Amino acid sequence: MNTPGRNGASANGNGHARLGKGTPVDTRVSPQDETSLRDVYRILFRHKRKMICFFTVTILATLAYAFFFPKAYHSEAKLFVRLGRENVGLDATTTFGQSTSVAVPVQRDEEINTEVEVLKSRQILDRVVDAIGPSAILAPGVAQQSDSDAKNSRSWLEALGLVVPLSPHEKALNYLEKHVGVDAVKKTNIILVSCDAPTAQLSQQVVTRLIEYYLDLHGTMSRSAHAHEFLGQQASVLKGQLNTLENEFRLLKNSTGLASPAEQRQILVTRNGRLEDELKTTSATIAATSAEASALRQQLSQLDQTQLLTKADGMPNAAADLMRQQLYALQLKEKDLASRFTDRHVELRAVREQLASAKAIVDSLEQTRTQYTRGPNRAYEELRLTHLRQESALASLGAKASTLKTQLAAGTKELETLNNNETRIGQLQREIQIRDVSYHKYSDSLEQSRIDESLQKERISNINIAETPTLNRLPIRPRPSLALLLGFAFAVLGSVCVAITAEYLDHTLKTSTEVESRLNLPVLVSIPRIASDRITRSSVQN
Q1: Residue 53 reports pLDDT greater than 90
Q2: Which of 270, 329, 303, 459 is nearest to 384 (CA)?
Q3: Which residues make Cβ contacts (< 8 Å) with residue 48, sequence separation at least 6?
Q4: CB 3.0–4.6 Å: which of 167, 212, 272, 431 could bond 411 by disulfide?
Q5: Is the peptide bond before 4 cis (omega within 30 degrees of 0)?
Q6: Mean pLDDT of all residues belonging to the chain
Q7: How far is it, in rounded angstroms, from Cα 515 to Cα 18?
Q8: What is the DSSP letter of 8?
Q9: pTM for the full model?
């Protein structure tokens, strides 16, 4: 029931005021109005039903969440990423002919982020699903949750045939992608790996398997595949080539007699130089000796081989005396023949001719003569002896020169042979050196690869497990005590907010004071609202 006031204003029992002609009035509170604690109590009391309803619903929802929501258990592990062989070592297959490079990233954040992305890779999660099994991962609670999530987005698409239904493996994989967390702790070298699962054992098992397969993949990624086999084959080929070249080099040295080409070259050059000097000296000596021998021959041609030793005058002429005796004998024979034969006798005539000849010879001979004694010329003999010596020396020098020329020609030929052999030896030495250097480099790389494989087999890397996967027996959600506390706080604050919001959205006048202050109209009477049950009871009593 409304009581009209001045100019038709009235106030009902619950404090709402309206104009008599039904025209709404702007009853928004101006900034100048003051709200007292009593007004706040009045507002909360006025909307107590809404507050009770919101509080009850919130508490019931909190209870349902705390006691009926599927439990989730949390397991986490920490990985420490340090500088190791993977950072400062170079791939063994890229060090041919070059020094070892360093593969340290520009910033450590890059390496940490790389490892985080590897941990998040679908390949590792796929191996985890295969190892644990989709049925173990998709436990009843997980299956219900994943099915409820999928029904909202995929059920109608699958019904229309727009998408292919997911297999249990794919469902388990999608579940792990949502519930496995990999985060890098800021300003540290720590990577935090965690998993939320319906059971504590499952969460720990997932984290354990994830780290295990990650360490395998990390060891494989930081090292080249099949590097050991490739380097072993190359080292074996180079070793065979090196052995072949060394055998060829040994045979060439044995056939040529070259042990040290440089030293032997020096010996040959020195010997040839000495032969050339000696040949020049011998040639000069030959020229001098030949000139001296020519001079001696000229002097010998001017000297007699003999010389007058003695001269004796008045010596009897023995030849004349002997001829005179023969003349006498002929005369006696001529007289004897003349007494017996005539003048025309042949024998007489021959004797007379002999007598005439002998007489002529005797007449020509001197009765006395000078006797000369001649002997060898000492100067001639000495010159001749000197000349003979010079001729012998000249012949000796000629033979020596011829021998020197032969030796020099042989030395020159030997030097040419040495030069030719040295070229081949130098080529073989260079090839051996190149093969030896390459073989050692491949051997070093092979050893590095072997060490890498050993480290990979033993899972030794720059990733250390700082904290093993934890096994938490208490679920991380829901937490009943915390949920109830937060639910109660939210219910109280929310109910108050509901009352305030409802009051703000209601633009009617509630009290006589608001009517007088907003409309400047006096309130003549105010009739309070009477509940219907009270009216019923009063009518029954009357």
Answers
A1: yes
A2: 303
A3: 499
A4: 272
A5: no
A6: 76
A7: 9
A8: G
A9: 0.50
